[in-house]
Amino acid sequence: MIAPHRHLLQIEGMHPPQIETMLDLAESYVLLNRSGKTQRDLLRGRTLINLFFEDSTRTRTSFELAGKRLGADVINMSVSTSSVNKGETLLDTAATLNAMMCDLLVVRHDQSGAPNLLAQKVDAAVINAGDGTHEHPTQALLDALTIRRRKGKLEGLVVAICGDILHSRVARSNIHLLSAMGSTVRVVAPPTLIPADAARLGVEVFHDMAKGLAGADVVMALRLQRERMNGGMVPSAREYFRFYGLDFEKLSHARPDAMVMHPGPMNRGVEIDSAVADDPVRSVIKEQVEMGVAVRMAVLDILSRGQNRNV
Amino acid sequence: MSDVLIDHVRLLDPATGLDQMGALLVRHGKILDFGPALGRPDGVAVVDGEGAILCPGLVDMRVELGEPGGEFRETVASAALAASAGGITTVAALPDSKPAIDDPALVRLLRARGEETGRITVLPYGAATRGCRGEEMSEIGLLTEAGAVGFTDGARAIGSVRMMRMALSYAAAFGMKIIQHPEDPELAQGGAATQGELATRLGLPAIPAAAEAIMVARDIRLAQLTGGAVHFAHVSTGEALALIRQARDRGLQVTCDTAPPYFDLNETAIGAYRTFAKLSPPLRADSDRLAVVAGLADGTIDAIASDHQPRDADDKRLPFAQATPGGTGLATLLGVTLAQVQGGQISLMRAIEMLTCAPARLLGSTAGTLARGAAADLCLLDLDRVWQVNVGTLPGKAQNSPFDGRALEGRVIGTWKAGRRVFG
């Protein structure tokens, strides 16, 4: 057992054994969940706060479910960021949470690095549930678990991440995790959606889906925000779908057994064709959601071990 | 289609360096063979070239066709007549029409309209931004699939630096260039003549020559930032050419063309407010004209384009500052270029190169060279024939030539499009 972490803020910097420990533990929670049993004594008496400064349904629900299955008291706090000075609010909130004796703090924020700032100020273990365009570590863990269960391994796989890499925290976390675990990671997108120096993160950059998907074991489509579709960075939704939308024609360039993933929520007919998204053999999009709960249970489990509080 | 042997000609093809006396045989619209000793097959008509030059049909990479939306000035059919008279068989059409060429269907329309004339191949540019308004990127990928050969907002500069960055970056994924009208729109706004003593004496609102260099410098930097390819149209100043020369030395994807007014005329051509000499960019000082000539000679300038901009009387019969800029150029493109050959500034081979294979290469077209099996697009040229540009009698519809009265030496005496004689 690798020494427990204090927080889970980012994948970057995590070592393969740490990642493997989390995935192995998550694997056991998959079995537990499927058996219909719970482990409600594990986090009994602990308080988990879902602190969401940005709208989310599935991630918040997933954490809530994970916490409840382990017996924690789960509180959801949604905080609007529109009106107030964000930095001040964030630190004020930290002080409030400390006073509440929160044990596990799940944070989503539209600013990159906000969870890092909170982690400096609160006593709780902070779990980044997505910060700006930085990272979304539990998403990468659940994606890795989904891949590992389907392919039996992560090492040596070719994973193509397609779409809005520039604004995607999912892409960044996946790039770090999969690269660390020995996968070859490609990013495929129009040049306007690829961040500067992307290749320096250890990925191969493609602007053509046929080339980027050639021989891929895993194809991951990312959501394209609507406000970026109308001539801002992409000319139109129909052009995006024509050249970058994941349909069976483009998927035919990947390996015949390539699996299709999407972190959700999907824009059908923009970054992914419904026929591909709903394909029962190729698409593992629903499985990703199931893995999400198990991975978050594992993360809560591991981080709570690092705390000295006795219950 | 009748087969024809064009005999006793000086075969000239800069793409291959060919320059020799001989003949060329056209069969079924294609070049079957050419060379010094060519037999005459039975049933083939003969055209005696009498020692004239036979070169590839010219490729004009910057033409406003008038369609759609400006049919009262020029149509594809009338522009094709002027092109044939000028030895031009391929034209790249600007997209800032009404509506702008920002939809794949319009690209296909223009290609079809060219085919209908039987005289020219129209290679449409796609609008770089929707409506050529400079605000939102157009569907560059879909337009490329439909047959667009490059992206530009035509005579409007892409002024927003963010938009230009985006377009350069995005178009690069499709192997496409952005063709820029290199003139800072804010510095050029309302201007009618190049800044200097003459504009001051005439009391005309002026555009500084630096408006071109500023835009060129900016876009070179953006090409470097994005890895994209930028082409500057109708470069008219020495300062801009110096920047382009440096950029190419650094290996950046930067190319440019100029148009005959900028190496044949200077600002004095506007004389007593001659609106036919009001162009965009404006005619420059003679020092800039000489720099453009030097750019032709040293290879900084890749191609010569007519920058044909048809205007009607309502556009031009106005006080100078209110007149619409633009001049016709299809019929005079070759003749005015040849004046540089006669003046000894450039070789004949270099002149024809900048009118054939060089622009074709920039457009990604296989036209502009004599190749066996290729469509017989040909230009027969008599270097010694003298003629005078007379506005009112020019082929085509628009008559707003800035070269009215200019005596030229060297004239097209025959043009073939896909083996069919369309002029002479």
Give an account of the 3D structure.
- The complex is a heterodimer of chains A (311) and B (424).
- Chain A has 311 residues and is α/β, with parallel strands linked by helices.
- Chain A has helices at residues 16-35, 58-69, 86-99, 114-121, 137-151, 169-180, 209-213, 237-244, 248-251, 274-277, 285-305; strands spanning 47-52, 73-78, 104-109, 125-131, 158-162, 184-188, 204-206, 218-221, 259-261.
- In chain A, the strands form two sheets. In chain A, strands 7-6-5-8-9 form a five-stranded parallel sheet.
- In chain A, helix 4 (114-121) links the parallel strand 3 and strand 4.
- In chain A, helix 1 packs across helix 5 (137-151), helix 3 packs parallel to helix 4 (114-121) and helix 5 crosses helix 11.
- Chain A starts with 15 loop residues before the first helix and ends in a 6-residue tail after the last helix.
- The mean pLDDT of chain A is 92.
- Chain B has 424 residues and is of the alpha/beta class.
- Chain B has two domains: 4-53 and 376-396 and 406-423, Urease, subunit C, domain 1 (Roll), CATH 2.30.40; 54-363, Metal-dependent hydrolases (TIM Barrel), CATH 3.20.20.140.
- Chain B is built from 14 helices and 19 strands.
- In chain B, strands 1, 2, 3, 4, 5, 17, 18 and 19 form an eight-stranded mixed sheet that branches. Chain B has a six-stranded parallel sheet with strand order 9-10-11-14-15-16.
- In chain B, helix 12 (333-342) packs antiparallel against helix 13 (348-355).
- The two termini of chain B are 17 Å apart.
- Chains A and B meet through helix 8 of A and helix 3 and helix 4 of B.
